[in-house]
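Appendix B, example 12.
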Amino acid sequence: MTNINCSSDCIYQKDGNCTLESVTLMAVTTDNSCAYYQKRKTQQHNKAKDNQPNL
């Protein structure tokens, strides 16, 4: 198991580490970024829940 530190907004990043389990041979990127990077989708807010008072 390899420990790869990561701070990107990637779907594989969790608690500062890359959680990608299986990798394949990839070409080197020109900007030193991760070849497996996939942007994490932002979470949609639930408007009904947002209108409720905080208890």
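The chain has a mean pLDDT of 78. Helices lie at 47-50.
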